[in-house]
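Pasting as-is:
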Amino acid sequence: QLQLVESGGGLVQPGGSLRLSCAASGFSLNYYAIGWFRQAPGKEREGVSCISSETGNTYYADSVKGRFTISRDNAKNAVYLQMNGLGPEDTAVYYCAAIYEPGNHYWGSPCTYTMDYWGKGALVTVSS
């Protein structure tokens, strides 16, 4: 069964840090760009960050640039999102998603296209 599983969410105080993990089972992430998305209560889902498997390029939403860092460990079949300087506006359910890259050409961030697989999400709450 092909699936993505997020972990590392939780409650953190403003200014704190969390690291989210996205682990894949049933397939290798080596051929997939991985994106992190989030959906806050009452808001639409938005893209947070993306990392390409082919180029290694990373992409960030303006709201998280300089605070969040995406990385991948192909040996562990996992992708991470290090989140620093968290604020209440970062409270959301965070999802990871994968999109296949080989043979496909994407303009800009591959994560702006329709993703192939989605995790079920991890809740991040930033509150004092």
